[in-house]
Amino acid sequence: MSRSPLSIDRPLLHRAVRGRGIGHSSDYDLNPEIRETLPPTRSLRGAAVLCGLVDREDGAGWRVILTRRADHLNRHAGQIAFPGGRIDAGDPSPEAAALREAEEEIGLSARHVEILGPIDGHETVTGYAVTPFVGFVDRAFEPRPDPAEVAEVFEPPLAFLMDPANRTQDHRAGPGGRRSFWAMPWEGRYIWGATARMLVSLSDRLAAEAADETAE
User: Fold this and answer.
1) Share above pLDDT 70 across residues of the chain, in percent, rounded to a whole number
2) How confident is the model at residue 54 (pLDDT cuts 50, 70, 90)?
3) How far apart, in whole angstroms, are the C-alpha atoms of residue 131 and residue 138?
4) Domain boundaries, the chain
5) Span 10-26+44-169+181-207: which CATH code?
6) 141 contacts 108 by C-beta, under 8 angstroms
7) Partners of 185 in the beta sheet?
């Protein structure tokens, strides 16, 4: 039996982000056989991303700020991603790295973001340990994407992305064999891979918090 779409408000988001974790996720969640081929100890590079939530004046509720990476990039060209990237040596914290990257990529100043906190980390097949941060963004924010990195900024509804009915499992063939992953197609954009998996983690947190509230 599928669960009903959640009614997502600010208090529920606060509780879900700041409450108990669901558990770290990875690009191997749907591909455990690939993980078995990795070295027992693997050095991961740190990265941080911002899942920015904005409530525009269109009455559509919370929206998620996502980017489409520039087509000329050497890695992950054209893919959908949260603003964010590698944690540099000069970053005082993963949160600071996520905010720095968001300003560089889409012109989002830290003063326009209220960080709620991190959610469960994510390990990528490319060797990154990603910390996603959820934050409220001032509705007056207007994206100014850096064309060197970002082709497009768009804002799908959070309710759509959090609804399990709108996600699917897809797969692609690669050098290591067939790889399965989560995907959330929306208005011609294909949200998949690590970004989709982190959104699934947020959805699971919201659902668990809502279920606890109902049980009380």
Assistant:
1) 94
2) very high
3) 22
4) 10-26+44-169+181-207
5) 3.90.79.10
6) yes
7) 190
